[in-house]
Design goal:
Blueprint lengths: L2 H16 L2 H11 L13 H12 L2 H11 L5 H8 L10
Helix pairs in contact: 1-3, 1-5, 3-5
Length: about 90
């Protein structure tokens, strides 16, 4: 996977979130973005990293997205590592 594939996966996750009204509301609240801002942020690598951070913050959401997208379990983690902020150490 490269950075562009990671960004594509994150965009797919955002599209998936758009079909999950409750999760989308939580995402918008957490990100501070308005629904109309989402299209403009699709090319922002930092924002795309936040999308994956949000989906990965819930095991259920991460599982549902990965299963629906036909992704292997570690695909989102590998994608996240390629976006800005993804190389931070995991202290847990």
């Amino acid at each position: 996977m490269n950075a562009e594939a990671a960004a594509d996966l994150s965009r797919d996750a955002l599209i998936w979130l758009a079909d999950q009204p409750e999760a989308l509301g939580q995402f918008l609240a957490a990100s501070g973005a308005a629904a109309e801002d989402l299209r403009a942020r699709l090319r922002d690598p930092e924002f795309l990293g936040f999308v994956l951070d949000f989906v990965l913050s819930s095991e259920e959401m991460a599982h549902d997205f990965a299963a629906g997208a036909g992704l292997p379990p570690d695909a989102m983690l590998r994608a996240r590592a390629l976006l800005p902020g993804g190389d931070l150490p995991n202290w847990t």
